Amino acid sequence: AHDAPLSPAAGLGFVSLVGAGPGDPGLLTLKARARLMHAQVVVYDRLAVQSLPCDLPAAVELHAVGKEAGHHPLPQEEINALLVRLGREGKRVVRFKGGDPYVFGRGGEEAMALHDAGVPFEVVPGPTSGVAAAAYAGIPISQRRESVRLTLVTAHEAVKKKGPQVRWDLIAPDAHDTLVGYMGLTSLGEVVHQLLAAGMDPETPAAMIERATTAAQRLVRAPVRDLPGAVEAAGIGPPALFIIGRVVRHADTLDWFARRPLFGQRLGLFAPGGELADALSLAGAELLEPPAPLTPAARVVMAVAPITGWIFRSADEVDLLEEERDTPGFGAELTAWCLTDEATARARELGWPHVERIDDQPAALVAAIGAHPQG
Ligand code: SAH
User: Is the confidence at residue 4, as pLDDT, over 60?
Assistant: First the structure.
């Protein structure tokens, strides 16, 4: 074995393998945030983008390695080599990965490469998407008396011929297991076929959850036998995961997230958002709270999904966004929610397509946005 240093040493950099959580930026841990804010370089995946702090200092170098518009994903070996090179250059690096770095995320391979190269590293766990998705979908995954085992599987292996295989035959007959399948969209039909063939009750409650914990979360539920058809009919796309087990039926009553009045809204509000931000978030909006002027990280976060509305308190805030209006994220459906007359006048003058003048009281704001037909 090698004697790799485990903490920062003279001349060497330091690499933090950091879990970004499942998508909701509020699920980023305090330690993850601290490492990001003090990094020199952040190497991030597509699944982690939404959790980048909007106030990340502009000096932090951002390096996308996942699938993104205009990019091809970097092969794993090249990501490993990049981390080693940055570490050897003496950099403080964050390797920012969706969910938890070690849960089906190839974080282990990155840690091994760093260890072999003698570059000190640490791992900062993050909420893994399977567990977070269950919470947001209303599924208590280890409900007492109903489930005594949680199984996290990479369902994709079901359609591969090489390498270790998931023992679907061992899982299928256990009525007290909750099965969580990552990367299970394309292989869902094959997985369900194998589970039923191995004796799973075809009526077992099952769910597929798309873009869990974000404004775009969608939940499809059906008895396991019918799940592949239901998922196809709904047009579910990645990232998505499935949960199979009797506990899934509790989503009938515990489905709190999708029921909130502002669920589905992705709203922007310049920092500090104060009480307004608290009220909007509590009402279920996904909130972007970028600093003014905007940082590069804020621009990256803003671009990953359509923003449904922006809350303006002043004409200056309207001006600050003028340059962003032709970037991804700013669709034609976006509503400019204006809390003052001057902001309203400025938004109209600059030709924002949907301008609404509303009351700046948090409760009134939530009610107005909640009552508005969504674009
Ligand atoms: N390390 C990650 C998983 C990486 S594998 C984690 O701990 O969550 C990628 C798979 O994770 C996707 O194919 C999908 O199955 C799942 N996934 C990640 N984010 C998700 C999300 N927000 N909603 C649903 N599934 C998600």
Answer: no
